[in-house]
Design a protein that fits this description.
The chain has one domain. 21% of the residues lie in helices and 37% in strands. Strands 1, 2, 3, 4, 5 and 14 form a 6-stranded antiparallel beta sheet that branches. Strands 12-7-6-15 form a 4-stranded antiparallel beta sheet, with no helix packed on it. The chain has a 4-stranded mixed beta sheet with strand order 11-8-13-16, with no helix packed on it. A hairpin with a 4-residue loop joins strand 4 and strand 5. The chain is globular, with a radius of gyration of 23 Å. Keywords: Membrane, Transmembrane, Transmembrane helix.
Length: 239
């Protein structure tokens, strides 16, 4: 009798282990078709009125970016993740303003700038920035000063409305060092942020009215950071 109970427990543990692996850790199946993507987005978030899938762009094995055009001719973005043995829409934005997607919140090398700019805005390029403000404080009579850090990367948006850019290596190196130092402090500074400046064909700043202030849906299973719109007055030009 004891042997039967023991074997029952063993079989249950084996079955449970197989099920847990299948449900949480199995490799993703093929990505849904465009028709299925549109149906899923409109079912979960009817306000999006998705109509045309522009592309499906794998970020890694378990994350896919899907830019789309709505029935209202808005250029939006949807973020998909493989979770619990299913492809799910983690977030949808009816506008395609740049955001920073963090598939692995602990690894800056996995971060991507994502955008889908409405062609009516007639942008030529976007300049992305990582900025850390200057810092000054006194601790136990000792003065501490940290310089400003400003990193810039320009991307063209003329060829197509949507795109993505992985954080450059020097940005990742700086962020890893910053996170390590900041996490050791009792009161983190929170003085680092990301920004962007949009430019037109003549290299003039242009406010992208058609690409911002959309409506959102999120199931909470996606890490997105807002990227602040800057102007030239916010940028320091090296002398």
């Amino acid at each position: 009798m004891m042997k039967k109970k023991l074997w029952s427990v063993i079989f249950f543990i084996i079955f449970l282990s197989i099920f847990v692996y299948w449900f949480y850790f199995s490799k993703p199946t093929s990505f849904p078709t465009n028709e299925q993507l549109v149906e899923e987005m409109n079912s979960i978030f009817p306000e999006v009125s998705a109509n045309i899938i522009q592309d499906t762009i794998p970020i890694d094995e378990r994350h896919v970016l899907v830019p789309f055009i709505s029935k209202k001719k808005d250029y939006g973005l949807s973020y998909w993740a493989w979770k619990n043995h299913k492809w799910k829409v983690a977030s949808v934005n009816t506008k395609g303003q740049p955001m920073l997607w963090k598939p692995n919140i602990n690894d800056p090398s996995s971060f991507y700038f994502i955008w889908n700019i409405d062609p009516k805005d007639q942008l030529s390029s976007i300049h992305f920035y990582l900025i850390k403000d200057r810092g000054y404080h006194i601790t136990k009579g000792i003065e501490h000063y940290s310089p400003r850090v400003q990193l810039e990367k320009r991307v063209s948006v003329q060829d197509k409305s949507y795109g993505l850019m992985q954080l450059p290596d020097d940005w990742v190196t700086f962020m890893n060092a910053y996170i390590k130092v900041d996490s050791a402090k009792q009161s983190p500074d929170r003085d680092m942020f990301f920004g962007w400046i949009p430019y037109d064909q003549k290299n003039n700043e242009l406010f992208p009215e058609g690409s911002i202030n959309g409506t959102w849906y999120s199931n909470g299973n996606v890490d997105l950071e807002y990227v602040m719109i800057l102007n030239k007055g916010d940028i320091e030009i090296p002398r």
